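For practice. Supply one:
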Amino acid sequence: MMNLDFDDSISMHPGVRRQERDKIRRRFIRLVDSKLALHRNAPLNRLSIKCKDDVGPAPVIRWISKVLNRHVTELVLNISSHWSWPLSSEVDSSETMCQEFWESCSVSSITLKRLTFRFKQMVYDNPKSVSFDTPNLVYFEYSDAIADTYPNVNFPLLVETSLDLRMTHEQIGQAKLSEDDIAKEKEGTMVGNATVLLMGICNVKKLYLSDNTLEVLAFCCKPMPVYNNLVHLTIKTHRDVEWESLTALLKNCQNLETLVFEGLLHRYGMNCRSCECLCKPWEEEDVPTCLSSSPVKVLEILKFGDICEDEDMDKMMEQVEYFLETMPNLEQLIIHYETSIDEDVEEVLSQFQMVSREGLSKCKIQVISDNLNLSSST
């Protein structure tokens, strides 16, 4: 079966002038149209379209409609746009996608198995309605602002998902206000609602969540979904994002085996340094922690040592030590240390070796840098 990949980023570099960009854009549209027409009778496995420049909604809708009618198995869309797509027409086919593409996006296909959808637009607005009726989808990668509503989310066979859900500027502002104690007392207050979408992926076994999505979980999702099938979770962290939603999420992943952190820094909130957070308590006292019941066997830390301030390294060290002290089922700790200094790698491993795991499972510690790969057991 045929794979078709189109990418305008090779031609659309920052130095291209406006008139030349218009020519390149028209050539790109003609290229995709001609290739799809040329191979219109050939079985199609994959279509990948990456538009760094804004080609507008009409060509994209046309391309998607054609390949869905040809029972494409994998669809990859990476679309950049600086304006909304207020289409009123809809694709007329048995398997349709994108009615009113920005105002209302709808994906419906019984053959689609892999879908990658990245929509990059200014975050002042968000889609009004987004639906996914894809009963045979097994892989789903989605990056977009959260919609006002998700009328239909059908992912019964989903195995792996990567989510980068974002709030609008207005929602971010409302979220900051809601962190006030008085506002928090208002039961059930949310600045948006992505609950249906996040509930819809609850069958996944492997999940990646961006730092933006952690904020969406905190301010746009109630109740927290339960992921009983989840065995592998990757979390991208950011120094300005709290971990309160992550704590609640981990409590609802009772069969999780592998936890991966892409970075370790986060913003300290009201629940930090308490039993409701993943941080070490302020005082050296016997404070119960949610980590003490963690089923995780493999903990992997990416971008360890990627810091902005000297104290960031101390925070990372303290966090990993606390993981070692409290996670009862941990069997392997893998740290990817971003350093070219071999002595630093040896020192980090030495410090982690000294952490007591009395009464806990044996744990193999591995520290990997560009030059070294050291390991030891506790």
In short: The longest strand covers residues 44-51.
